[in-house]
Amino acid sequence: MAAQKINEAHEHIAKAEKYLKTSFMKWKPDYDSAAAEFAKAAVAFKNAKQFEQAKEAYFKEAEAHTNNRALFHAAKALEQAGMMLKDMQRMTEAVELIEKASMMYVENGTPDTAAMSLDRAGKLIEPINLEKAVKLYQQAASVFENEERLRQAVELLGKASRLLVRARRLDEAAVSIQKEKNMYKEIENYPTCFKKTIAQVLVHLHRNDFVAADKCVRESYSIPGFSGSEDCIALEQLLQGYDQQDEDQVFSVCNSPLFKYMDNDYAKLALSLRVPGGGSKKKSPVTPQAGAGGSRVEEEEDEYSGGLC
């Protein structure tokens, strides 16, 4: 079966090369027909698991389309070549080709397709290169933002923010989450703004910047529905506990369902949050309902808290 497909592919390449030849009676190559034959050859090679040869056939298809000024089809062929590199586990090269294809989509006047290509490239490279994936998601978000498609833009920006947190690039994550929050406000998705405020506070506290965390909450009071919401109350309790070095209160809030069931990268920030000077210690079980109310254990610990400051 594989041998038959390989022979079929070579037949299509021979036809394509014939279309590209010129003669006394044929002054211009038939790029359109050649591209179609190269595409058929690529599919045949792919079915025979000959990915290197399939990639080369897609390259030739892209070149024929480019010569025919059919940039959209050229970009599609480059993306397909990139997929062959992906199947060969050559992810970095695959992403480079998809990036090149995305630029051709933009040049062709189809920016939405360009953004979707960058998103695909980001997913491919994410397991092996977080920094590259962040850049690709940010580029894709920018393309959608320029097209005033904020819902698509903010989704991609969210991917970049989570990866920045995972990479512990918290200063950049704080900026990225703020941009997300602004977009969600613009499209009037206020409940998601509340969640972004939680993410902001967690990032700022991990940056040891209590002032910035407090400012995020205070600024969010202007968002319709935030004041008095469960998100708002939880954040007020968290900041109060953090400011007063009340480990039990911080532990209780960070282990509540509201925080534990956030996106995984933010949930990890909540679970790993420590009060400065308090360190990490074993705790007797504390129910979320205990809140800020002082137990006898807390009162005994408070006797020593002043000496640690």
Task: Please tell me about this protein's structure.
The relative contact order is 0.05. The chain has a domain at about 1-195: Tetratricopeptide repeat domain (Serine Threonine Protein Phosphatase 5, Tetratricopeptide repeat), CATH 1.25.40. By secondary structure, it is mostly helical. It contains 16 helices and no strands. It has helices at about 1-20, 30-45, 50-65, 70-85, 90-110, 110-125, 130-145, 150-165, 170-185, 190-205, 210-220, 230-245, 245-255, 255-260, 265-270, 295-309. Helix 1 packs antiparallel against helix 2 (about 30-45). The protein is elongated and about 90 Å long. The model is unreliable at about 280-309 (pLDDT under 50).
Short description:
The chain has 309 residues and is mainly alpha-helical. The protein contains 16 helices and no strands. One of its GO terms (biological process) is vesicle-mediated transport.
